[in-house]
Amino acid sequence: MVLQLSYSMELDYDVVGVQGLNAEAVALLRPRVNVSAKGEVPVTLQIFRIRIPCSGLVSAEIPMALRLNVSAPPGTRYNDTTLILRRNKICLKGVEAPPSNDSIRLEAGPLMNGTGAFYIAAICACALILVIGSVTSALYIRNSKARVQESQKTLPCCSYSAAGTGGLTGSSVLVRVDHRPGSANSGSYATIADLEPLYARPCGSRASYYAASHVTNISQTTDPCDKARAMAIPRSALYCRSLVQEGTFGRVYKGTLNVAGRDQEVIIKTVTEVASAYQASLLVVEGSQLAGLVHGNIASLVAACLDSPCPLLAYSSSSNELNLKTYLTDGVHHPVTRDLVNVSVQVARAGAFLHGRGLLHRDIAARNCLIEPSNLRVRLADAALARDLFPQDYHCLGDNENRPIRWMAVESLQHNQYSTATDVWSFGVFLWELVTMGGQPYVEVDPFEMMACLRDGYRLVQPRPCPDELFAVMAVCWLGIARDRPTMPQLLAYLQEFHDALGGFI
């Protein structure tokens, strides 16, 4: 027997005006909800929506509280439950459009009798909270002002103990960067000028040879799906030999591609039968990102089978190639510093190649690289299936879009801006991953607080096994102002010369 739980909900918001002008009453229109204020918690597939539109007449920050009361059936031993979700609604003058991602589908799981029914129904109630919370994408998870003040007190002394973090146990995980005079959000603990004496040669410096301006407006007009269609092959030409990785709806295989009677070793990415049409199309779009590129440090698409609901994408590979994040965290491999710098040089070479052709990667990270352990050859790959295979690296900030929050530049989090400079920021976090052998960056920071954390000048601290010269490279990648960061070709020059210098001591 399924227990029916009754609920009632109400949305409270403060109308104390900014500077006493009752601005919120003007800034915020009446909330619209497509469910009744009272009813029973659903146990079947349903969609709930709540919209909190702004008038666009004035800018204001409105504290809000969603109260959900769940009542236990009469005559049972269960207690009533009240859940309160507090948010701050941000309204901006001139912006009226409500969020486009304003709903989530909830699927009811199998129901149990007796005690279990109460817990399942309670989960449904919590799901209702999450739905309403997620669709109000402009709301903060916490009171932003209070949380920022709290983060300023606690972040500098945060520490943790975890395996695979390169000996960070007991050390400070974040450091606050000193701001430059006259600049609100640009760190000054390392600059390009600081790096020049470390790497530049007296004459004919590679850094000056590679120097280039950041590209902020990159247009990629070619339809990625057209690239995949141009490489279409029959299903019979691909053979999935062994499963390498598996997620909720995605799989990666080692296999072979037969072209003109010759077998070629490949990695095959595909989705399972439970994947939606959107997930299948996303695989093709993201998997075609690097299609048609020929470079020794880039894993580009070589063939695609699109004639089934579960498309298959094939990438050239060797038999012993591994995912770089798996390589770093498996505890089997122990690369020395020069090996790690060698890896970084190869990824920087791939990044410089992309930027030189007007392309952005947008997700440079260890999980999106392949490595051959025998010779340390590394290739930068696309991000297809990465959200499914490494879900701990992606987070949704209330807009139904999973993003690599901890690898993103401050301007990407604040304004959704991407450029070659944001790729450089991600590359800096990638360097930190290498030195910590696959450590999780900003592990102690709530994903919803990442923007405030970076905006206030906090950055990853130097890991203990990391040379000062290498951390200086990371530091300039995380400067607050995009134009102050080095370009990818400059990073390539610095890292190549550092790698050569390390070789002189062996």
Automatic annotation (TrEMBL):
Which SMART domains does the UniProt entry name for this protein?
TyrKc
Q: Indicate how the chain sits in the lipid bilayer.
A: Single-pass membrane protein
A Pfam family annotated for this UniProt entry: PK_Tyr_Ser-Thr
Q: Which molecular function term from Gene Ontology is one that the record holds?
A: ATP binding
Q: Which residues form the Protein kinase domain?
A: 238-502
Which PROSITE patterns does the record associate with it?
Answer: PROTEIN_KINASE_DOM, PROTEIN_KINASE_TYR, WIF
Q: Which UniProt keywords apply?
A: ATP-binding, Cell adhesion, Glycoprotein, Membrane, Nucleotide-binding, Receptor, Signal, Transmembrane, Transmembrane helix
Q: Which residues form the WIF domain?
A: 1-91
Signal sequence span per UniProt? none
Q: Which regions span the lipid bilayer?
A: 117-141
Any single Gene Ontology cellular-component annotation: plasma membrane
Q: Which InterPro entries match?
A: Kinase-like_dom_sf, Prot_kinase_dom, RTK, Ser-Thr/Tyr_kinase_cat_dom, Tyr_kinase_AS, Tyr_kinase_cat_dom, WIF, WIF_sf
- GO process terms (BP): axonogenesis; cell adhesion; cell surface receptor protein tyrosine kinase signaling pathway; positive regulation of neuron projection development; positive regulation of phosphatidylinositol 3-kinase/protein kinase B signal transduction
Where is this gene product found? Cell membrane
The entry's protein name is Tyrosine-protein kinase RYK
